[in-house]
Amino acid sequence: MQWKVIYVTVGTTRFDELIREVVSARALDVLVRRGCQKLVIQYGHGRPVQNSENILRDYGITVEQYDFKLEMPRTDILNAGLVIGHAGAGTCMDILNHGRAGIIVINDRLMDNHQIELAQQLSDEGYLYYSNIEGLVETIKQANLEELKPYEKRNNMESFVKYLNEMIGT
Questions:
Q1: pTM for this structure?
Q2: How much is the average pLDDT of 133-146?
Q3: For residues 102 and 110, what is the distance between their CA atoms, to the nearest angstrom?
Q4: pLDDT on residue 152
Q5: Strands ordered across the beta sheet of 129-131
């Protein structure tokens, strides 16, 4: 699977730590080695990347970014060889339903850290990789996207909804 285009999304949240980590020097070094040529960043309610010209000059990676799009960013997901996103249920389902490889990142600051249960389950089943901010670069470095299983919507949606209901206690 190609790593040329990587889509980074925080959904409707603010997760500046994720955006900062993806454009850190250590992450960019790994992304270049993995063949990344373009980062498409959806930063939500957070802050845009300020040094995108430097990233292009120093790493040869083009940065395209936006806060939100009125329509679902389907094209951005479909054009990406890898999606790196926050570990919210909506982002996870977008990655899986569009057949993309993904690394989901847990936001440890959230109350009761509910994202870790979903992330662990999807990782244990072989659909996505997951990480926290501190481990993201190593996860990117070690990820073998060909090992991820394709998500079959028809067979898995019922069990996914059941799992979510159990997780949130409804």
A1: 0.88
A2: 97
A3: 21
A4: 84
A5: 62-66, 38-42, 5-9, 82-86, 102-105, 129-131
